[in-house]
Design goal:
By secondary structure, this protein is of the alpha/beta class. It is 38% helix and 19% strand. It binds sulfoquinovose-uridine-C1,5'-diphosphate. The site of sulfoquinovose-uridine-C1,5'-diphosphate has 22 residues, from helix 8, strand 10 and strand 11.
Length: 384
């Protein structure tokens, strides 16, 4: 039985990923230091539905599925801790989500910028070193981000670009122009991972993921206590999830600027599909493989309008507010990112349909009284 180690198992994506692989019959272990719960306390924001402890969810999973998930509690930025985990578990595949995931959090001030980059970059370096020491043939499946590329005025390829310069040709890593210290941390990770593939023969897949939305996966729906964390606050909530909560709460949708900025989006169910596809079709030894992981491109205004019309069907009248953009980002730009690799390997996208928005809105309506209006308005500005 293949062994899968999920780093960041307590998170929005980590927990559903662990259950999915466990359900598929893999031997699964997870690592987390529960740091996200501390960052939530720090910014004063909680997931919409209270999330039981990881240990509790693991017990419920065992009751529901008859399958065990092992948990190691600790911080991957601690070299000793992570070496012990790898020495003990010796995974075949490492799925790495264990990073500070929020752009606004990283832009608060010096301390948050430094923390985000130290935490993310040193954690990943420790993981690679532990892999080389205890399981050098294992496959690293690392969560990157589409935000590594920014919004260049050329089509975005999957990680690499064939270039010709002064009559000579080479294949170079695609140029990066990210939009926050958080997104920059993922760029630094990509460079470190590519270096280790080139020099040590590490096999790695960098999943440059777009903005994820959604509340449920097949496994979270098996029991109310198997849910994953769903954020809507201005630090940890992402655009569509926030807009759905705002619609139910009766506050205008918080479109930043004119809303012309475009991003790649995907359903949380498709994150699981993509990670499974990457795992079952591993990179070669020495290969740094990059997949752009999204299924659809929308502008922020298009997304807000989808939510507005979905809400109308439910009898909710929703306004769209164009707030002064707290970020520094282009609101009118070319955006044509490629995403062929995962589709070629069999990804069957769950597109963002009216029914999907409808089912998200209905679920959120049941939790209407739990919505904290204080955490919605963005507080962090990119410009000092
Ligand atoms: N936006 C709004 N209103 C909001 C929230 C966001 O207009 O209330 C806009 C932002 O200005 C931005 C876009 O929506 O143009 C996406 O913002 P987001 O907060 O949904 O996503 P982002 O900060 O880019 O980060 C999220 C995840 C991150 C992941 C990234 C993928 O938090 O972990 O890496 O999505 S991507 O955006 O493709 O880089």
């Amino acid at each position: 039985m293949k062994k899968i180690l999920v780093l960041g198992i307590d998170g929005y994506l980590g927990w559903p990923t662990a259950m999915r692989f466990s359900q598929l019959g893999y031997e699964v272990a997870g690592v987390d230091n529960m740091a996200k719960r501390g960052w939530e306390d720090e910014v004063g924001a909680k997931p919409l539905w209270p999330v039981p402890t990881l240990q509790k969810r693991v017990r419920v999973w065992e009751k529901v599925s008859g399958k065990k998930i092992r948990v190691f509690v600790g911080d991957i930025t601690g070299g000793r801790f992570i070496y012990k985990v790898f020495e003990d578990f010796r995974p075949d595949v490492v799925i790495h989500y264990a990073e500070q995931p929020s752009a606004p959090y990283s832009m608060k001030n010096r301390q948050h910028a430094v923390f985000t980059q130290e935490n993310n970059v040193s954690g990943t370096l420790n993981v690679i070193h532990a892999m080389m020491s205890f399981c050098p043939k294992a496959h690293l499946v690392k969560l990157g981000t589409m935000g590594e590329y920014g919004t260049p005025n050329i089509d975005i390829e999957e990680g690499w670009l064939d270039i010709e310069h002064n009559g000579r040709k080479d294949r170079m890593m695609f140029p990066k122009r990210p939009g926050s210290f958080y997104h920059l941390s993922k760029v630094h990770d990509s460079h470190n991972i590519e270096f280790c593939c080139r020099v040590w023969g590490l096999r790695a897949t960098d999943l440059n993921q777009g903005v994820v939305y959604g509340i449920a996966t097949d496994e979270t729906e098996l029991h109310p206590e198997l849910l994953t964390s769903f954020h809507y606050d201005s630090d940890f909530g992402t655009a569509l999830n926030r807009f759905c909560v705002e619609a139910v709460a009766g506050v205008p949708l918080t479109v930043y600027g004119n809303g012309g900025q475009k991003r790649g989006f995907l359903n949380i169910r498709d994150t699981l599909q993509c990670v499974q596809i990457a795992t079952e079709n591993p990179a070669e030894s020495g290969e740094f493989r990059v997949f752009n992981q999204f299924t659809e491109v929308f502008s922020v205004t298009e997304l807000a309008k989808l939510v507005q019309s979905g809400a109308k069907e439910l009898g909710l009248s929703v306004k769209i507010a164009n707030l002064p953009n707290p970020r520094v980002e282009s609101e009118a730009h070319h955006y044509n990112p490629k995403n062929d690799s995962l589709l070629k390997l069999g990804l069957q996208p769950n597109m963002l349909s009216g029914e999907l928005v409808d089912s998200m809105l209905r679920k959120i309506q049941d939790a209407r009284e739990l919505i904290d209006l204080e955490v919605i308005h963005p507080k962090t500005k990119w410009k000092r």
